[in-house]
Amino acid sequence: MPKMKTHRAAAKRLRRTGSGKIVRKRAYFRHILEKKPSKRKRRLGRSIVVSGPDRARARRLLGG
User: How many whole angstroms from its chain centre is CA 23?
Assistant: First the structure.
């Protein structure tokens, strides 16, 4: 049986940390930033750990 291929769209959006967690970027941080408060922009700039049922799906898409 051949190896599983990594889902390339998922690989561009998700990454695995050193401890094995899968993290993603938050939404709403690409454009129209001028009218958003600084506090919100700081929060949006950070990565967030993928949680719940999405974690299993993300792990499968990333080939692990």
Answer: 4
- The span from the CA of 43 to the CA of 46, in Å, is 6
Please check whether residue 56 lies inside any domain of the structure.
yes
How many angstroms separate the CA atoms of 55 and 10, rounded? 12
Residue 3 lies in a domain: no
Q: What is the mean pLDDT of residues 46-63?
A: 94
What is the phi/psi pair of residue 15, to 5°? -145, 155
- Structural domain of 22: 8-61
43, 61, 46: which is closest to 6 by C-alpha?
61
Q: What is the pLDDT of residue 23?
A: 97
pLDDT at 36 over 90: yes
